[in-house]
Design goal:
The structure holds two protein chains of two kinds. By secondary structure, chain A is mainly β. Chain A has strands at 3-5, 10-14, 19-21, 24-26, 32-38, 44-50, 56-58, 64-68, 73-78, 87-94, 107-108, 112-117. The chains are: A mainly beta, B mainly beta.
Amino acid sequence: AQSVAQPEDQVNVAEGNPLTVKCTYSVSGNPYLFWYVQYPNRGLQFLLKYITGDNLVKGSYGFEAEFNKSQTSFHLKKPSALVSDSALYFCAVRGDMNYGGSQGNLIFGKGTKLSVKP
Amino acid sequence: EAGVTQFPSHSVIEKGQTVTLRCDPISGHDNLYWYRRVMGKEIKFLLHFVKESKQDESGMPNNRFLAERTGGTYSTLKVQPAELEDSGVYFCASSQVVRAEAFFGQGTRLTVV
């Protein structure tokens, strides 16, 4: 079965410090990996994706994520956190269709609340 | 370019009533998806349209839920009759192609009392 795990319900970081939001996945074949962010009273906004190619993916707002196949991880990172980065972050995976993965639907983690304090 | 639009943003209804949610995808996006997040739980897939056809409706919880996408443009999701456990945030998303990222609307918060 396909699944996504975000082991931390909440991550607290001081402004200016680096941040990491963890994500691990379980799929058959090659995964399609995504990060989304939800600001208060807003919808989900796409941040970045990994489909193939370079393991380090750069996205919006200075975020990046590293795909690690051996550890089945796709952690979200930012070198210097801003107070405005405080939000709910979701990792999602779409399975490889050649291995029975669903053609369209995303499997989401439960979300990690990021709190950046001044 | 306009994003995915959902209406209403909030709905409070009594148990047993009917509610219809609407989603307008990004123009030109053939793929339209419905998801739901029940309080404190993961965002769960409901179904996937390609144009007007239901490609995958494996996530629909039961036959009280009916989704349509007539003409391959906007979509509606009807819950009839609503139950307490249907409360949650219903998200709609669209994408140009299946493997591309999906763009989400702001969600409809449904509260059944």
